[in-house]
Specification:
Blueprint: H1 13-18, H2 28-43, E1 48-52, H3 56-69, E2 73-76, H4 82-92, E3 98-102, H5 115-121, E4 124-129, H6 135-143, E5 147-150, H7 158-165, H8 172-185, H9 192-203, H10 206-216, H11 222-244, E6 247-251, E7 254-260, H12 265-274, E8 279-283, E9 289-292, H13 300-306, E10 309-311, E11 315-318, H14 326-334, H15 338-354
Parallel strand pairs: 1-2, 1-3, 3-4, 4-5, 7-8
Antiparallel strand pairs: 6-7, 8-9, 9-11, 10-11
Length: about 350
């Protein structure tokens, strides 16, 4: 395949909105091999290893651990790569290594398959999170010997948990960092800096983000602000495209806004809320989807759990199992995610059918 076919810079905004980025077209086997090599080099000889989601919350935790422990080698991991990341740490960490897992929750028992061997290999394992855990998985992790602390997902982000649990007298800017991170992660949106942190974490490499907040806390330096300003021109245009193609659907007692596109899901969800949506579904060109709630809908994680995902009551993610080959993806792009949308809406309908008639 010619490189120019997946070159974002030559695509019109309309086409860019409905197609995935070029990373989608890179085989997972190559991504896996590269990730393994990077993880191996990071883990070996590290005194402290942090397995964390590379969003603003997970990276804030990494920064806090580095302050408290003086070090912390970062292994970025998403919900769907948690199992393999724990496997790599088990294989390559030294026996005196301290391991932290941050801002990640297992979706199934398979995700924690390597927890027992990891505890047996290293000095200690501590897990900080604020997602929705099942009682069974939480007990299995604790019984394996992990110090698991899960905060209330309606009240705190994982950075809050790390800040309170790490035995260290943090400078004020790190308490402020946790507060601003919470503002975005819990979708409170009362502090303008929280969107800055979220965007910056998304647009720069994890180590650059950690280094920046270690030095500056939540107040980004001028060069970071300049980067955000330049990138947000296109971001705003992609948000507008997704909002334009959105539809409102009535599902049981809820109005659900549904749309498709490569975009920033939180801003799109906010726009749909302003149009009257109790919940928003944003299906992405790569096949995943974000589900966002409001005060009227706090069951996003229950919807996502039905379609290969999970998360929080008011913010969750999933990837419906509806893609068998590239023709399915071609159909996905040309129909703006019709099959994935229907799979998620069906999950909303099932949830509505289970509601107590007296509620």
């Amino acid at each position: 395949m010619e490189d120019w076919l997946i070159d974002d810079d030559r695509l019109s905004l309309g086409r860019k909105s409905v197609l995935p980025g070029k990373g989608f077209f890179r085989p997972n086997s190559l991504n896996h091999d590269q990730a393994r090599q990077e993880a191996t080099a990071t883990i070996r000889d590290a005194d402290v290893v942090v397995v964390a989601d590379p969003d603003a919350d997970g990276l804030a935790c990494t920064a806090l651990i580095r302050v408290a422990r003086g070090t912390g080698a970062l292994v970025p991991a998403g919900p769907h790569s948690l199992r393999r990341s724990l496997k790599w740490v088990t294989e390559y960490a030294d026996s005196d290594t301290t391991v932290y897992v941050c801002d990640l929750a297992p979706d199934s028992q398979d995700d924690i398959e390597h927890v027992g061997p990891l505890v047996d290999r290293v000095d200690s394992v501590t897990w900080y999170d604020h997602h929705q855990w099942t009682h069974t998985l939480a007990e299995q992790v604790r019984q394996a010997g992990v110090e698991l602390v899960v905060g209330d997902s309606d009240e705190v982000c994982t950075a809050d948990v790390a800040l309170s649990e790490l035995s260290y007298d943090f400078p004020d800017r790190f308490a402020e960092l946790a507060a601003v991170t919470r503002d975005h992660d819990l979708w409170i949106r009362e502090d303008s800096r929280s969107d800055d942190l979220a965007d910056y974490a998304h647009w720069v490499e994890p180590e650059e983000y950690v280094g920046t907040v270690l030095e500056h806390g939540p107040d980004l330096p001028p060069e970071a602000e300049e980067l955000l300003e330049s990138r947000r021109v296109q971001k705003a245009a992609l948000i507008e495209k997704a909002v334009e193609r959105a539809q409102l659907r009535e599902v049981g007692p809820w109005t659900v806004g549904v749309t498709y596109g490569r975009c920033s899901q939180n801003e799109v969800a906010e726009a749909l809320r302003e149009q009257g949506a109790d919940a928003a579904v944003i299906v992405k060109p790569a096949g995943s989807a974000s589900i966002r709630g409001t005060e009227k809908f706090k069951q996003c994680h229950e919807v996502a759990a039905q379609v290969n995902g999970g998360g929080h009551p008011k913010a969750a993610g999933c990837k419906p199992d509806v893609y068998d080959d590239m023709l399915d993806y071609a159909h996905h792009w040309t129909t703006h995610g019709a099959v994935a949308k229907q799979a998620i809406l069906s999950a909303f309908h099932r949830l509505a059918d289970r509601r107590d008639p007296e509620a």
